[in-house]
Design a protein that fits this description.
The protein is mostly beta strands and about 110 residues long. It is built from two helices and seven strands. The protein has a single domain, classed as Jelly Rolls. The radius of gyration is 12 Å and the shape is globular.
């Protein structure tokens, strides 16, 4: 199991989607109630919520884990491309506010 960590503090359990098929599928088959951790899409510069029934928080991070941008994406939307993004973290909407995750923070995925 992997963990999403900021400054030594564990924020959530993490599932890493590194294969193209895993990244394309993302959170599509899940419901909001089952979202206890995060999904890390690596590499990734843009996400969509087409076919989803709930909003998600999305953090675009550079290769070193610096959060470049965070956004809450409602269902049936496509984000703009974040060219410097090396990976993306997806979580249930409201998670980033609870964790106080914001642009400029440095996060890492520890496996």
């Amino acid at each position: 199991m992997a963990w999403l960590v900021r400054e030594g503090d564990v924020l959530a359990s993490a599932e890493v989607a590194g294969r193209a098929r895993e990244r394309m599928h993302g959170l599509l088959s899940r419901d909001q109630a089952s979202m206890t951790g995060v999904l890390v899409l690596r590499p990734c510069r843009q996400v969509h919520t087409l076919g989803m029934r709930f909003a998600i928080d999305v953090a675009f991070c550079d290769r070193e884990g610096v959060v470049l941008r965070t956004v809450t994406v409602p269902p049936w939307r496509v984000t703009r491309v974040v060219w410097r993004s090396g990976f993306v973290v997806e979580a249930a909407a409201g998670s980033f506010e609870r964790w106080r995750l914001q642009a400029g923070d440095t996060i890492e995925v520890k496996e």
